[in-house]
Fold this protein.
Amino acid sequence: MLSLGIESTAHTFSCAIVEKKGRQVKILSDVRKIYRPPEGEGIHPREASRHHAENSPQVLSECLKEASVTISDLDLISYAAGPGLGPCLRIGAVVARSLASYYDIPIYPVNHALGHIELGKMLTGAKDPLVLLVSGGHTMILAFLSKKWRVFGETLDITLGQLLDQIGRYSGFASPCGPRIEELASKSTEYISLPYVVKGNDVSFSGLLSATKRVIPKGIESACFSLQETAFSMIGEATERALSFTGKKELLVVGGVAANKRLSNILSSICERHNCKFFVAPKEYAGDCGSQISWIGLLESSKKPGLDLKDTFVKQSWRLDTVEVLY
Amino acid sequence: MNLVQKGAEADIYVTTWNGRNSILKIRKKKDYRIHSLDTRIRTLRTIREAKMISETKSFGITTPLVYFVDEKKCEIYLQLIKGKLVRDLPLNKIIKTCKEIGKIVGTLHKNGVMHGDLTTSNFILSKQGLVMLDFGLSQKTDKIDDYAIDLRLFKEVLNSAHAQIVDDAWISFIQGYEKILGTVLTEKILSQVSVIEKRGRYANVV
């Protein structure tokens, strides 16, 4: 089975081909083009979608070439139908629909967040993990129970990725700002007290965002250090609570912020304390990519036929815990 | 001294205090947290828990007795309660118990206290009735929003950990809650719960 996955929920336009032969799964290609806003600015949905539209032919042909596959070889096409930015989602959907209708290939709209989780599980070999999904769009603690991924904890306002990006942009860095903040934080050990808000298994970052902005004049390095320490400790505690409540023996971290070393550090020390295996999505597949979408397409195609073109939707607000998982 | 549970918040031991069987709750140092932040959190929560456990008794809520508090070491010696965590009860029993939980939470809110960590593992069903635990995240508050956060958390726990019975358990909880707080206030808090749910990422917004 050959599957093409198209990702276009936010700043990344990506096409990937994943092959499944029996139990063997292989990513044949995963090509990405990332929209970069000017320094100090965030994603402009219209500009990002223009970027995606302009780059889609090139990304698609590179992806096919790298995998040595032609379009007519494909058994299915899947695209990220949400959650995400409307104008961006529509580009991916249009590319998927065009190919599906012209070449008569089954088409599958898939949930972006599910892609992060399932690809992470597949690549790390985690069986029944508690999942921490941390990215620009999500901050959620999840576990699988009777056909759905259930939310055990989440952010009550902005996400961890947004928190880092907003501080970065405020300081004039280029998005995504996580790596730059991590680098600056590593140069300081001076902790400035910042608000720490954990409510049960949930966290809230908005107060921390405002407070961090106020301490930036004291030095950007110590501000970044204190921001990371506070935010990651909050996530750590919420995760630890969910871990001890669910009794899961595996923790899987996925999403763009999973690439942060300090966060991994904190989480692996928590896992050690609770005798729990720790998995992190490999760095090159932690952020948004077509492989995630392509893999869900393969999983779904094992249980149901593709959709009629008229039913192929995009949905900006599509919560993961509303998706019924059949496989 | 026997370690019975390695919780997220603290380690729980069974021991004795002046000849009485007792639970020792230690909020251990967490190496992953920066020292000053860690000390601040552990001390604050230890003191808060000890205070609230005692104070809520005056509202008629059953909580363990506090024998001794060491705020330097972040330790609390508590009365040992024998029984079963509500989380581990059979499903139909959980549904029934949720009504009692509702009454307890209602009483707490009526007296201006939010619990902050309402889960089914923070209640023990014992011979002396339902006992409420873990007040480390509790807070005195008169805000409707805070009470709603308590309710939403409990709903989230039912929805995630007890998905098979979430609807019945939630109805049962609200029945108990309403008995204490009355229909008007309950409606008000429940509508705030939906406001909070709408704040959730990618919740259905019109």
About this structure: The helical segments of chain B are 35-57, 91-110, 144-161, 166-181, 183-199. Chain B touches chain A at residues 6-9, 31-34, 36-37, 40-41, 87, 116-119, 121, 137, 149, 153, 156-157, 159-161, 163-164, 196, 199-205 (CB under 8 Å). The CA atoms of residues 129 and 182 of chain B lie 23 Å apart.
